[in-house]
Amino acid sequence: NAGVTQTPKFQVLKTGQSMTLQCAQDMNHNSMYWYRQDPGMGLRLIYYSASEGTTDKGEVPNGYNVSRLNKREFSLRLESAAPSQTSVYFCASRGNYGYTFGSGTRLTVV
Amino acid sequence: GQQLNQSPQSMFIQEGEDVSMNCTSSSIFNTWLWYKQDPGEGPVLLIALYKAGELTSNGRLTAQFGITRKDSFLNISASIPSDVGIYFCAGTLGGSNYKLTFGKGTLLTVNP
C-alpha cells in the first residue's frame, strides 16, 4: 500500500546513545516532515524538507539532525539521546491533499 | 510562533449524540485541516478547508473555515463508538514550505 513507512516502531535508548529514525514515502511527494508528539502538546515540527536537497528547522530542532537522502527518504538522527527526547515521532509527506503520516516511532530514553 | 487553541481538551459523550469542537488562532491561516488519530497510529486527514467561510462535509462530519480566517470548527453528528480518538485541527499559510501548526487535540470518548 502506498504511504509513509517509519522504522523502527519502538525503541529504547540509554541517555547518550545515538540512533537514526528512518522514514520513506512512495507517493513521489516533494516535501517531508518530522514531528514529535507529547501528551497534551499536540504535534510539534522538528525539521522539514521542502524538496530533495533542502532541510530547514522547525519549532523544536535542538538535539536533532536530519538528512534528506533522496526524494523518498528523510531520516532523523539523535546524536546523544536525552530523557527529554522521549516521545512519539511522526514522519509525514505532503501531497495535493495534505499530509500523509506514518504510524510513528515510540522512543523511550532512560 | 503561531499558536492554535483547541477546545475542549476532552469530551465524554453517549453514542448518538452530536459533538462540536473548535480551534482559534492568534493569526490568520489560508488553509485549515482536521485530522483524527487512532491509538498507535498517525493522524489521518478528515477534512480540508481552503477558503474563508467554506463549509465542508464528509459523511457525518462537517467543518467550517471561519470568516476571519482565525478559527474553524468540526461537528460530528450521531456519534458512534468508532469515532473515539484524538481530533486535531491544523492550519497553514501554504506556500512552498507548507508547514502545519497543530492544535493540542481533543480526546473524544463515546460511550456505547
Q: How helix-rich are the residues of chain A, as a percent range? A: under 10%
Our Rg estimate of chain A from Cα atoms comes to 13 Å
Q: What number is the mean pLDDT of chain A? A: 94
Q: Helix and strand succession of chain A?
A: EEEEEEEEEEE
The backbone outline of chain A, from C-alpha atoms, is globular
Oligomer: heterodimer
> What is the structural class of chain A?
mainly beta
Q: What's the total number of strands of chain A?
A: 11
What's the SSE pattern of chain B? EEEEEEEEEEE
Largest sheet of chain B: 6 strands, mixed
Overall mean pLDDT score of chain B? 92
Structural class by sheet pairing and helices of chain B: mainly beta
User: How many separate helices of chain A?
Assistant: 0
Helix content of chain B: under 10%
3D structure, described in words:
The complex is a heterodimer of chains A (110) and B (112). In chain A, strands 2, 4, 5, 6, 9, 10 and 11 form a 7-stranded mixed beta sheet that branches. Chain A has a 4-stranded antiparallel beta sheet with strand order 1-3-8-7, with no helix packed on it. Chain A contains no helices and 11 strands. The model of chain A has no long low-confidence stretch (mean pLDDT 94). Chain A has 110 residues and is mostly beta strands. With 112 residues, chain B is mostly beta strands. Helix content of chain B is 0%, strand content 54%. In chain B, strands 2, 4, 5, 9, 10 and 11 form a 6-stranded mixed beta sheet that branches. Chain B has a 5-stranded antiparallel beta sheet with strand order 1-3-8-7-6, with no helix packed on it. Chain B is globular and about 45 Å long. The chains are: A mainly beta (110), B mainly beta (112). Chain A binds chain B through residues 4, 31, 33, 35, 40-45, 48, 50, 56, 58-59, 90, 92, 94, 97-104, and chain B through 1, 4, 6, 9, 33, 40-45, 48, 88, 96-105.
